[in-house]
Amino acid sequence: MAFTIEVEEWVGSVWHRFITRRASPDFPEAAVTLESMQRPLSVLFRAMGGASGVEVGAANARDLMLRRNLLQQVAGTCKQLPVAWCDSSNLRLPQSLAVYPERSLNEDLYRWLALLAAQAGEMRHWARDNQRWTQAILERFPAMRARYYRLVEAHLQLRPDPASLPKAEGALEQAICQALREPGSIVQFPRSEVAPWPLPMWLYPAENLGAPQATELGEEDQDNHLRAPSAEQKSVRKRAKRVEETTSKSGLMIFRLENLFSWSEHIELDRQGDDSEDEDASRVAEDLDEIALSRQRMRKGGGLKLHLDLPPSDVDDIPLGEGIKLPEWDYRKQQLQDDFVNLQMMLPRGSEPKGLPLHLSPLARKLRRQFEHLRSDRQWLRAQPQGSELDMQAWLDFHVERQHGQCAERGLFMEQRQNRRDLACLLLADLSMSTDAHLDDEHKVIDVITDSLLLFGEALSAVGDDFALYGFSSLRRQQVRMQALKRFGQGYGDDTRGRIQALRPGYYTRLGAAIRQATELLGQRKQRRKLLLLVTDGKPNDLDLYEGRYGVEDTRQAVLEARRKGLLPFCITIDREAGDYLPHMFGANGYTLIKDPRQLPFRLPQLYRQLTKE
């Protein structure tokens, strides 16, 4: 019996693969993924006039009222297909393209969609607007005509024959083919009850991805349990809709009182622990096309889950002084909101003086030797009245001037003097809950950041530069937390090493407030050069409206404010998707990506040495 079931399952899986492959209109062997082209597409989109704050991501499949052939109906495919669309905040492209039998055509299609999105505006009529945008691109960039018509002719060969369709559908198909060949030639399109086969070269109406949670539930009263997405989670966003809770509280429940049991028991609850993600729930959510959101806060099943904003005061970090009011940039109003954010300086609780961990000692000794050479670097001063060597350039200038009757006094020697490094540096480390993610079986992101801070401190203490170390996290705008690990003017020793090793990850990443406070601290230094280094593993986010474009634009504004005050902000990230948002926030040369996070402790001192080189 078991053997029969296994054979049936094997035959069923073979049949499923066969019928799905035969029914699919795509060409898998020529597929191109969005991930492989996401960064150049983002650059192309913005270079051709696209809005700088628009996020380029993958589009989820949507329902289309298509006429499917018999094979597709048997296989159950082509009910939903991914199509490209854009709005003021998103540019969503199919996660992979395999509509053409040639890989180069699929790559050109991605580029064409990015161009079209950069030209696009508000969509009022799907077909007329796409024709108008296409016509504008071809007139503005005549060199694109050959590629465009190559895509059109290859696509028309794959579209259904209008003669094989019912009258209304055939007329619509003919009009669409004409609109592709001659953009702008069709104004009125025939009506049809069935949608035409998808046009991969056109943009579709924007999809409603759901409003931010704060717009309906209120910014101050939210207890929804949001978690930072894992690094392996796909970036496809889901459609969302609000539903009314229909559970009735009225009714009659009859039971025998003696059958009702109750008990109480003391439980030691660790308020600092984080729940692990429910993998089954993640897989279910990935398969859903639309996620319904209710105001109900009850959990229907499973274990006990508590959401506590902050740990109790006896185990939380130690606050230092009063909170600091900071502004925040609202890109929608194009203005700074004064005293909008409250930042609290803190000291890691439980920190004790500690030495450098043994596994970092060999590398720390090597870094100290390298950076001690910077302290002893000497520079040549030219045109000196006396010195150890003759300045040939100054002597030639003197000789030429004397030939022309001019004999101004000038120094003719070079003197070597000690090089004085006139700079200050503040390192700001991201301590959000995403840093609690595992890199392998033994190491987490927070471990890498801790090692980086320790080695950075060892290197800069050797060279003698003025530096400070801070960490930060946030929980909405009322609670931005900034850990003071080493302030300017404090010595670097076992006290600082102990504070660094006592760091714990938690909460979210409100970058703008942290950068503004770091700018204020660094701006008070008297050094000529001031470097603001930021180490982070992800995008700005928080529980309130700071998610998405709002957080990106606020961070960008904070970086611009720092540059106007004479600071050099520079971001070091281990987020592989940083190319989508960091160029907008820090500029093309204002950040670097470290692909292997375990290399961060080695790379950070090297980057500092390059950035501070005269």
UniProtKB/TrEMBL annotation:
Residues forming the VWFA domain are 422-611
Region Disordered, residue ranges: 217-243
SMART domains from the entry?
VWA
Q: Which CDD domains match?
A: vWA_norD_type
Q: Record's InterPro entries?
A: NorD/CobT, VWF_A, vWFA_dom_sf
Question: Matching SUPFAM superfamilies, A to Z?
Answer: vWA-like (SSF53300)
Q: Which Gene3D superfamilies match?
A: von Willebrand factor, type A domain
* UniProt protein name: VWA domain-containing protein
